[in-house]
Amino acid sequence: MNVVSAMPQPIPPSPFPWFDLVIIIALVALNGVFAMSELAIVSARRARMEAMARAGRRGARTAMELAADPGKFLSTVQIGITLISILSGAYSGASLGGPVGERLVLIGVSAESAPEIGFGLVIAVTTFASLIIGELVPKQFALRAPEPIAAMMAVPMLWLSRLTAPLVWLLDRTSALIFHILGLDRETENHVTAEELHLIVAEASSAGVIEESERAIISGVVRLADRPVREVMTPRTEVEWIDINADPDAIRALIAEMPHSRMPVADGSVDEIIGVIHSRDLVRILVNGGPIDLRAIMLKGIFIPDHVDAMDALKALREAEVPMAFIHDEYGHFEGLVAPANLLAAIAGEFASDQDEDTDPPLVEREDGSWLVSGTLAADTMADRLGMSLPEDRDFATVAGFALWRLKHLPTTGESFSHKGWRFEIVDMDGRRIDKLLATPVKAGN
């Protein structure tokens, strides 16, 4: 009688620890909460948080307090993230590695290598989940809406920082000691430079958040403090003035042609500016038929040096009796005047006037891509339009000054020079004054 031996039956796997899996998922999610809270509170804009606090948003003021003391807050977050990472890594391998290995045996993996493969597979999946769910996705949420998330998570983070205060204090003091040994200052001032602000505005314009016209105005405001008053003033050669000694007939003729609401008053020469008059005061005298006495209605003007910037000029105009300032160089020579209209034009661009019917625009684009540029145009306005840079330490204000800086001599009609991919040709001279230039883009290889 033959005895057939029975095949050994495979040992059924132990029950899968679903409860342990839930704990690991919860730890990974909690790691994401810490990462999201950290980035949201650190990157939240203080101005918006203050607005939320004034509106009564719960947690906004707490978020600002946490951001004001980043050492303690970041230590609290780091404690939580580190503990969670250790627990999830160790717990996942210990509790899930064996059960996963048993199930790998059922699909053909050798019993000898299954435990190691199961352990490695669990660690790999846990690490991947920690990166995606515990770091990348939460941080993307924090970047999308930092202020609301900061306000929502500030109170729990505050309570956690209080619970871990002793350990946080130790970590904070230790990091402070290391910075002291290295000779570094932990408190860094976060200043936004003008260049960064220009980039932010340009990106906002490219993304369609603001219109191109709005971008130009914002850039004009930001650039105002960097522009010397000589770049925005009305130059001496274009100043219209009235002589204090003019006879009544000459004054009446001047009033009939006066395009401005205010007029500088000089004593015989534009170099001898002594004050300002309002055109309405002259009109009132003429209407009433009284004697014209310019000294009686003249107001005192203000005089500022040519090296101040446009923002300083704006401040001076706001404090003056009449908003018109006269610009003089270090030798006392009159160079021009600045009024609110000059500053507005520097921000928003030149305005059309019925007095400009016979005046050519200062910057005209031609069909071939070249530009006809007025010599009196502000140099940085030309540079912005042509997309080129100028030296920051330049001592010229206009396109004519730019040409003189490049040529090093008084040019004649037809002379040319190149700068930053553009060829500039002097096309019109008005005596010794550069009146018009032609800017042509230089093609590569030419």
Q: Structural class per helix/strand content?
A: alpha+beta
Low-confidence stretches: 3-7
Tally of individual domains: 4
Shape: elongated
Strand order of the largest sheet: 8-9-12-11-10
Rounded radius of gyration (Å): 37 Å
| Helicity range | 40-55%
- Largest sheet, strands/sense/barrel: 5 strands, antiparallel
Estimate the strand proportion: 5-15%
Report the order of strands and helices: HHHHHHHHHHEEHEEHHEHEEHEEHHEEE
Number of helices: 17
Quote the distance from N terminus to C terminus: 105 Å
* Strand segment count: 12
Average of the residue pLDDT scores? 82
Structure description:
Helix content is 53%, strand content 13%. By secondary structure, it is of the alpha+beta class. The chain folds into four domains: 18-182, no CATH class; 191-224; 228-354, Roll (CBS-domain), CATH 3.10.580; 360-441, Uridine Diphospho-n-acetylenolpyruvylglucosamine Reductase, domain 3 (2-Layer Sandwich). Helix 5 packs across helix 6 (146-163) and helix 9 (212-224) packs across helix 15. It starts with 17 loop residues before the first helix and ends in a 5-residue tail after the last strand. Residues 3-7 have low confidence and may be disordered.
